[in-house]
Amino acid sequence: MATTRIENATVWTGHRLPSGEVFTTDAVLIRDDRITALGQTARAADADQVIDAGGGFVLAAFADGHVHPIFGGLEQQFAPVRDMSDPREVAASVGAWARAHPESEWVRGEGFDHTLAPEGIFLAEWLDAEVPDRPVVLRATDYHTVWVNSEALRRAGYGVGVAQPHDGEIVLDTEGRPTGTLREWGAWRPVYRLLPAPPESTLMDAVTFASRSFASAGISWIQDAWVEPGDVGTWLTAERKGVLDQQVDLALWADPNSWRDQLAGFEESRSRVTAEGAGQVTAHTVKFFADGVVESGTSAMLEPFCDCPHSQGLPNWDPDEMKLAVAAIDALGFTAHMHAIGDFGVRMSLDAVEYTARVNPPRDRRWVIVHTQLVDPADLGRFAELGVVANFEPFWSKFDAWQTELTEPRLGPERTHRQFQTATLADRGAIISFGSDWPVTTYAPLEGIQVAVTRQMTAEGPPWMPEERVSVDAALAAYTSGVAFQAGRSDAGYVRPGAIADLAWIAQDPRAVDPMTIGAIPVLGTWYRGRRTFTG
Fold first, then answer.
1. Collapsing DSSP states into helix, strand and coil, what is residue 528?
2. Count of domains in the chain?
3. Is the per-residue pLDDT at 1 higher than 80?
4. Are 294 and 369 within one domain?
5. Which of 192, 207, 225 is the last residue in one of the domains?
6. Of the residues 135, 196, 274, 449, which has the fewest C-beta atoms closer than 10 A?
7. Average pLDDT across the chain, whole number
8. Average pLDDT over residues 377-390
9. Does 149 map to a domain?
10. Average pLDDT of 364-385?
11. CATH code for position 119
12. Domain for residue 36, yes or no?
């Protein structure tokens, strides 16, 4: 029975006192995989290992309520397209990678900036100039937009006169020819179905990279928010090989076109995870994409966009079908995890929850609406009334190029300044949890917390919607106890005797530094179930 004591620390327990402050102490004792004592009692106990935290800050390990680990890991394996300044630079990087990898039949890249082209429209001919003879498929940072070259269009059968899918857009030029920009699943999934599956070694490299990255950021639990059938085996293999440093829950993707046929598969995947796994991977969740994203004009809106031909966006689900689907997976004991960006997408999701609660027997549910970008004022109170967790990606809550180049022109000023109402929803009684949506944006919780607390891009710049700032304590809670609640975990999210020993040790108290420096605080240690997974 191994014991570890961490002392000389500010131990932020997450437990609020009657005064509203969070209870802190100075030491924590770990025995095997559990916290057994705090403070004076912990300091008085014998320990096999004593760690002097040097006045640092110890808290429950962070949890990510919405992330895409395999995508983020695979991004490292393909052509580098992130953090480039214009489409030609992206194309040149793709061309260089293709020439260095002549064995690759398809050229892939993940994470190009979808604000680099006017109206977010990228042309196949820009890629053709670099790679004319092999198909190229690049996915944007929003993971809803794909840019392909002419050979990829040809292989997918996309030409003049192509029929538009009901759940996506093949962007056409003025003469009706595909431009090379594909928006949403209905448009780009036919291309992705042609891609060869990555070998197991590549997938294991991807998962290992993601897991180590999370550990380095103080994370011990993640929600993989987009899992297709083949991914289940990848996660089980990763667990068997011992490459995971986090608890992982899988959100199985519900296809609006075939969800009824998926129900048996959802149950089979859950049973397989239970039978073949050792408990580090679970499959409690089903993922719904209610809509797309504002930047592509595909989020589902109550009122028309200002500048978009899709008028009110492209909802991925018929509202009545979504109600039936959420009720069906709920009846099987799954949790609904619903991507909703536009105000109609949010309303569809809330309506599906309300319907399900009415037609199914009562139970303790932890349904989640994720991103929660634009909520109609009439729907703000429904989160608490229905018991829906509002999951935000706090790093998004700043007025950056996505907003100035694509979002504000689509929404107009009034709706633009009603986005990401974190404080408002918390004040209305909603449970708030945080996530990253990595690789869309950074996986580092401290960087997200900095934005949640400041709503600023720079120390000199003005805050965006400062009324939606939250306290550091509230932001820490959203990344710890908030996600633990979302996950249905009663033994995590707080530093208390009896809780699972998932802990993070950071160099400074984030409540005591310049808020604009929170994201730069070093992570010094991470523990998953009492096992140290990162040493900074």
1. strand
2. 2
3. no
4. yes
5. 192
6. 196
7. 96
8. 98
9. yes
10. 98
11. 3.10.310.70
12. no
The beta-strand segments (E) located in 192-253 are: 219-227, 247-253
Model-level pTM?
0.94
Residues in the chain: 536
First to last CA, the chain: 25
Read off the tokens for 455: 């709503």
Place of tokens 């969070």: 22
My answer on whether 184 and 234 are in the same domain is no
Query: Which DSSP string do the residues of 433-467 spell out, in sequence order?
Result: EE---TTSS---HHHHHHHHHH--SSSSSPPSSGG
Q: How far apart are CA 252 and CA 227, in angstroms?
A: 5
Answer whether residue 110 is part of any domain: yes
Beta strands in 168-266 (DSSP E): 169-172, 178-183, 219-227, 247-253
CA distance 416 to 198: 40
The last residue of one of the domains, among 170, 192, 214, is: 192
- Report the 10 Å Cβ neighbour count for 221: 26
Q: What is the CATH number of the domain that holds 521?
A: 3.20.20.140
Contact predicate 275/240, CB 8 Å = no
Q: What does the pLDDT average to over 229-236? A: 97
Is 471 found in the same domain as 520? yes
User: Tell me, what's the pLDDT at 308?
Assistant: 61
* 457-480 tens-digit pLDDT: 999 999 999 999 999 999 999 999
Beta bridge partners of 282: 249
Q: What is the pLDDT of residues 49-79, one digit of tens each?
A: 999 999 999 999 999 999 999 999 999 999 9
Contact 66, 443 (CB under 8 A): no
Are residues 226 and 93 located together in one domain of the fold? Answer: no
Q: Which domain holds residue 359?
A: 64-69+198-487+494-528
Q: 96: part of which helix (H) or strand (E)?
A: helix 87-100
Cα angle vertex 320, ends 315, 322, to 5°?
A: 60
Closest among 508, 439, 536, 500 to 220, alpha carbons compared: 500
Strand-pair category, 178-183 with 169-172: antiparallel
ω into residue 439 within 30 of 0, thus cis? yes
Look at residue 115 and tell me whether its pLDDT is greater than 90. no
Mean pLDDT to the nearest integer, 289-315: 87
Element (H, E) at 486: helix 481-486
What pLDDT does 310 receive?
A: 55
Average pLDDT on 145-164 reads: 96
